[in-house]
């Protein structure tokens, strides 16, 4: 009979309870204390209530209002442990037996309940080592089987289970990485990228990946695992041949000869027992070789998954770097609050009123000065002057001035530069004439067009600089022709 058929019907009431978290913590605390208890007979109900009261004192439960459980019983700070313990016993999570030696009821865990409680321990635990899901565990099982004189196949079954768990862990890492790819592609700011990277570094899969690549290095134990697989296969093959040879000798000694037509009843009792032992050992050797072949196949899949995961990690880092470069080049203007403020002031009819209110709320301790090319190259004054604090004086004249000079205007967009170049193309070539530059803005756009052409110049592009021109406003510039 399997364990699921032994679970009572009321067992799952715990998951429908509004106090589910408390029940789970009660069970894990009792389970851990039963393993550390000095008593070999188990925990009594009184000890269980004491453990549960400690958990209730540590939790933050609001007792200002009346608390009723699913059965309609009133819960108080004094009776909650007793009522919860009774529910756990009635629902089948705990087994209650009377012990004559202790003269009290003793609490134990059914086998099916132990599986759930161990799962609760792993869910609430912050330190998940996952020792079974490691290359080192597979290596340890194979080495133990190789050194075992009895050649217990359960060791190989444990190695196969550890290999499958490791393969599943790597598959879960890949699925998690795909999710972070999607989150990263949706980010539009540095803060969003930072949050995705921090979550990716601190999640459970990344910690396992760090263990797998450092202390449990896959490449450190990969060749050793393959050597152990080959050695165990060859040793089992040699052992099987030896057992079959001993069995043939046993039959020959019984007078069966080459024809082997005699029945087993002609064997002596000692030889019959020995023959059964040899047949059983041969079946175990066949089973061991089958399990080792399965481990080898799982380990090949693990190697492919591991290499693919490293490629995904590298690709994820490159995508994060590319996303940062994109925000630096294109996305910064969309997210820059200064650019948003400038756009608002340019489009709003009440820009003067906004600037006046903004200037009334800002207090500057020093006048604004424009940084020029001559501002940085100055000899530092080495004479020390005494510290003389000065109070901030409110300048009425300066408050009346607009704040247009304080706001940094963004550069020309690529669309504006492309539009300027399109207007001055003649027969597929960008040509600069006296009418090309009509304002200082056109002169700056001309500079950007020339700069882009020089930066991406190749053999298929022809750039010619002609004589110096002057327009009606007095701006001087050189004639330029860019032929694609």
* Strand arrangement across the biggest beta sheet: 6-7-9-8
Largest beta-sheet characterization: 4 strands, antiparallel
Domain unit count: 3
What form results from the Cα inertia axes?
flat
Fraction of residues in helix: 55-70%
Q: Give the overall pLDDT as a whole number.
A: 76
What do you see in this structure?
The chain is an alpha+beta fold. The chain has three domains: 3-124, Arc Repressor Mutant, subunit A (Orthogonal Bundle), CATH 1.10.10; 135-334, no CATH class; 414-483, no CATH class. The chain is 59% helix and 8% strand. The strands form three sheets. The protein has a four-stranded antiparallel beta sheet with strand order 6-7-9-8. The protein has a three-stranded antiparallel beta sheet with strand order 1-5-4. Strand 4 (95-99) and strand 5 (104-108) form a beta hairpin. The termini are far apart. 13% of the residues are buried. Residues 256-265 have low confidence and may be disordered.
Write a short abstract of this structure.
The chain is an alpha+beta fold. The chain is 59% helix and 8% strand.
Write the layout of secondary structure elements.
Blueprint: H1 13-16, H2 20-36, E1 43-44, H3 45-58, E2 67-68, E3 74-75, H4 80-91, E4 95-99, E5 104-108, H5 111-124, H6 135-147, H7 153-185, H8 190-202, H9 204-213, H10 218-253, H11 269-335, H12 337-347, H13 351-361, H14 396-400, H15 414-423, E6 425-426, E7 429-431, H16 440-455, E8 462-470, E9 476-483
Antiparallel strand pairs: 1-5, 2-3, 4-5, 6-7, 7-9, 8-9
Helix pairs in contact: 2-3, 2-5, 3-4, 6-7, 6-10, 7-8, 7-11, 10-11, 12-13, 15-16
């Amino acid at each position: 009979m399997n364990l699921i058929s032994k679970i009572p019907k009321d067992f799952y009431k715990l998951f429908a309870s509004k106090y589910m978290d408390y029940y789970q913590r009660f069970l894990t605390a009792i389970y851990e204390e039963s393993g550390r208890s000095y008593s070999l007979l188990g925990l009594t109900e009184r000890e269980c209530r004491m453990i549960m009261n400690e958990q209730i004192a540590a939790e933050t439960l609001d007792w200002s209002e009346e608390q009723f459980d699913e059965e309609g019983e009133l819960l108080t700070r004094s009776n909650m442990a007793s009522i919860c313990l009774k529910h756990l016993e009635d629902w089948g999570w705990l087994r209650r037996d009377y012990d004559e030696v202790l003269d009290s009821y003793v609490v134990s865990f059914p086998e099916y309940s132990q599986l759930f409680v161990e799962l609760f321990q792993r869910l609430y635990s912050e330190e998940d080592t996952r020792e079974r899901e490691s290359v080192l565990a597979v290596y340890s099982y194979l080495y133990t089987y190789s050194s075992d004189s009895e050649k217990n196949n359960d060791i190989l079954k444990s190695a196969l289970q550890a290999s499958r768990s490791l393969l599943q862990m790597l598959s879960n890492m890949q699925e998690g990485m795909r999710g972070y790819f999607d989150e990263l592609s949706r980010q539009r700011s540095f803060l969003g990228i930072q949050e995705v990277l921090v979550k990716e570094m601190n999640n459970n899969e990344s910690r396992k990946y760090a263990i797998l690549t450092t202390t449990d290095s896959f490449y450190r134990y990969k060749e050793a695992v393959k050597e152990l697989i080959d050695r165990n296969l060859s040793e089992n093959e040699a052992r099987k041949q030896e057992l079959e040879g001993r069995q043939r000798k046993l039959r020959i000694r019984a007078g069966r000869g080459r024809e082997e037509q005699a029945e087993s009843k002609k064997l002596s009792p000692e030889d019959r027992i020995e023959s059964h032992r040899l047949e059983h050992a041969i079946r175990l050797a066949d089973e061991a070789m089958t399990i080792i072949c399965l481990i080898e196949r799982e380990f090949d899949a693990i190697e492919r998954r591991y290499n693919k995961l490293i490629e995904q990690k590298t690709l994820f880092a490159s995508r994060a770097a590319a996303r940062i470069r994109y925000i630096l080049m294109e996305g910064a203007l969309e997210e820059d609050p200064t650019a948003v403020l400038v756009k608002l002031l340019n489009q709003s009819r009440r820009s003067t009123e906004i600037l006046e209110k903004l200037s009334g709320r800002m207090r500057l301790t020093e006048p604004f000065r424009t940084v020029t090319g001559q501002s940085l190259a100055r000899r530092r004054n080495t004479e020390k002057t005494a510290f003389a604090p000065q109070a901030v004086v409110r300048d009425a004249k300066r408050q009346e001035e607009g704040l247009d000079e304080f706001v940094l205007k963004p550069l020309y967009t690529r669309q504006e530069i492309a539009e300027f170049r399109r207007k001055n193309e003649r027969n597929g070539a960008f040509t600069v004439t006296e009418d090309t530059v009509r304002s200082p803005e056109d002169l700056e756009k001309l500079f950007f067009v020339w700069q882009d052409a020089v930066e991406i110049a190749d053999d298929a592009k022809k750039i010619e600089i002609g004589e110096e021109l002057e327009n009606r406003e007095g701006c001087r510039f050189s004639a330029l022709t860019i032929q694609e």
